[in-house]
Amino acid sequence: MQCRMSMEADVKGIGGMLPPLLFQKYFGGKQIVRMYKGKGCPVCHGTGYEGRLGIFEVMTMDENIRKAILEKKDSPEIQKIAIENGMTTMMEDGIRKVLEGLTTIEEVLRVTKE
Ligand SMILES: [Zn+2]
Predict the structure, then answer these.
(1) Does position 72 have pLDDT exceeding 90, yes or no?
(2) Ligand 1 centre distance from Cα of residue 87 (Å)
(3) Nearest to 68 by CA among 57, 83, 79
(4) Which of 38, 40, 58, 113 is within CB 3.0–4.6 Å of 88 for a Cys-Cys bond?
(5) All structural domains of the chain with their residue ranges
(6) Which residues, including other chains, have CB under 8 Å from residue 55's CB and lie 6 or more apart?
(7) Reported pTM
(8) Interval 7-53: pLDDT, tens
(9) Rounded to the nearest whole angstrom, what is the distance from the C-alpha of residue 99 to the centroid of ligand 1?
(10) How far is the CA of 112 from the centre of ligand 1 (A)?
């Protein structure tokens, strides 16, 4: 985004917003992280975002997941198995994009709540 500005964010303020496992993985042991924020300009119509960023959930089908689906397990259970097998959740993909400066944590929280 054109109006992107970097800022330092206090990790403590992020803690309460994320699932503990993800927080630990990406922010554990850190105190300050560099994040980016759009100030708002004509290009982004004052929103600070350039279009709608794609945040994706990546699930690799494997034997355990196939079995869980065949056994008609409910979706939280299937998701748990998928995460144990290395699935990237939307939230995690979003956090990676925040750290790459592609979006903000507020945007990730908004999108993952939908
Ligand atoms: Zn802008």
Answers:
(1) yes
(2) 32
(3) 79
(4) 58
(5) 4-113
(6) 90, 93, 94, 97, 103, 108, 111, 112
(7) 0.65
(8) 888 998 888 888 888 899 999 999 998 888 888 888 888 877 765 56
(9) 18
(10) 22
